[in-house]
Automatic annotation (TrEMBL):
One Pfam family matching this protein: 3D
Keywords: Cell wall biogenesis/degradation, Lyase, Signal
CDD domains noted in UniProt: mlta_B (cd14668), mltA_like_LT_A (cd14485)
Residue ranges of every copy of the Lytic transglycosylase MltA domain listed in the record: 141-293
Enzyme class: lyase
Protein name: peptidoglycan lytic exotransglycosylase
Length: 399
């Protein structure tokens, strides 16, 4: 071992001496090789309608007799409209509904007959592949007044005459207004309206006492104003400013202010009321603004212009669900399980398998709807002639 150490030491000394007697060759540094940026894989656009998303036939699923009776009543209400209304989803034609609507009028009002009607009178299908997601809405009651006064300062606006559908210079079309040059521009945002963009134009329908309560009534789309004399004024959705809807619950979750699953309506309200500005900063981040009309009928009106049914009406995206179609839901939280009828729409209800269930008025409706946020499965019940036609067209296109 000693001789090995000596030999290695001698070799090392000789090497160092040699290095000291001649200069080392200059070695140019090798330039770094640039790593090419990865080319992102383009995400294919989502289908714009249910007909483009595709349907999958499914077997009827279980539902209660109580749900069947509510759905039958709601379906009958919708029938006069669906037989003549264009279906933007591309799944049905108005005439497709006539036979099943005629049959609905003849079904006895018993639970067994109602169940049999939905089990055997329709083709059950799934649209697209993604899971369903359901929320809830209800008809809240807040303090309000027909005239401004102490404690009633927040205007509730009617639809402005200058809110129109027009085509902007970039080619996109939608709600907007014409500026002084006649160009179509986006309509005023919530922030601009809060700051007085509509003041002095005589558009005030009523006045709310509490901005936070009014903000959440907007999200529901309709509600009741408890007036100072004890009477009730009902108001309902009439129009929207065309600006993007931003969910404040999602903002609070994304910022870590409220935990996942903890951003229900009551939690959001408590957080907003605890802020020095009363939550106004958060509300101003949602640029969408709803305009209202007074309702004098039996209840809130849905997108068909007909009364909606508590625990029977569901709001959907009409590009994916025909208005008037029965819908079966099976959610992780069981409150929404059963049959519903698509009788309404909503600014935040976009895409296939997105649903907003209506629970009526009162404390129980508020509790269920305010906490409803659940994933699960959804199926549509369509006229058999519609599904036969769609499947036949698919077979021809894909032999």
């Amino acid at each position: 071992m000693t001789s090995l150490k000596f030999g290695l030491g001698a070799l090392l000394a000789l090497s160092l001496a040699a290095c000291a007697t001649r200069p080392l060759p200059t070695v140019e540094p090798t330039p770094p090789v640039a790593t090419p940026e990865p080319v992102p894989t383009p995400t294919p656009p989502k289908p714009a309608t249910a007909a483009l998303s595709g349907i999958t036939p499914a077997a009827p699923r279980p539902f209660t007799a109580e749900a069947a009776l509510r759905a039958l009543a709601a379906f009958r209400i919708s029938c006069p409209s669906v037989v003549r209304r264009p279906d933007t989803s591309g799944l049905t034609q108005g005439e497709d509904w006539r036979a099943v609507c005629n049959q609905a009028r003849l079904v006895p009002d018993t639970s067994a007959d109602a169940k049999r009607f939905f089990e055997t009178g329709f083709s059950w299908v799934k649209v697209g592949a993604e899971p369903a997601f359901a929320t809830g809405y209800w008809e809240p009651e807040i303090l309000g007044s027909r005239v401004p006064g102490p404690g009633y300062a927040l205007p509730i606006y009617r639809t402005p005459a200058d809110l129109v559908r027009c085509t902007r210079t970039d080619g996109t079309a939608g709600r907007g207004r014409l500026d002084e040059t006649g160009q179509c521009v986006p309509y005023w945002t919530r922030v601009e309206i809060y700051d007085g963009a509509l003041a002095g134009r005589g558009l005030e329908l009523a006045y709310a006492a509490d901005p936070i309560d009014m903000f959440f009534l907007e999200i529901q789309g309709s509600g009741r104003l408890k007036l100072p004399d004890g009477s009730v004024m009902r108001i309902g959705y009439d129009n929207q400013n065309g600006r993007e809807y931003v969910g404040v619950g999602k903002l609070l979750r994304d910022r870590g202010i409220l935990p996942p699953g903890g951003a229900d309506m009551d939690s959001i309200k408590r957080w907003m009321r605890a802020q020095p500005d009363g939550g106004m900063g958060l509300m101003r981040e949602n640029l969408s603004k709803i305009f209202f009309k007074e309702l004098t009928g039996p209840g809130p009106l849905g997108a068909l212009g007909l009364p909606v049914t508590a625990r029977g009406t569901v709001a959907t995206d009409p590009m994916f669900v025909p208005l008037g179609a029965p819908v079966w839901l099976d959610m992780a939280t069981n409150d929404a399980d059963g049959l519903w009828v698509a009788q309404d729409t909503g600014g935040a209800i976009k895409g296939a398998n997105r649903f907003d269930t209506f629970w009526g008025a009162g404390e129980e409706a508020r509790r269920i709807a305010g906490g409803m946020s659940s994933k699960g499965e959804a199926l549509l019940l369509l006229p058999r002639v519609s599904v036969d036609r769609l499947l036949s067209q698919r077979a021809v296109a894909q032999p």
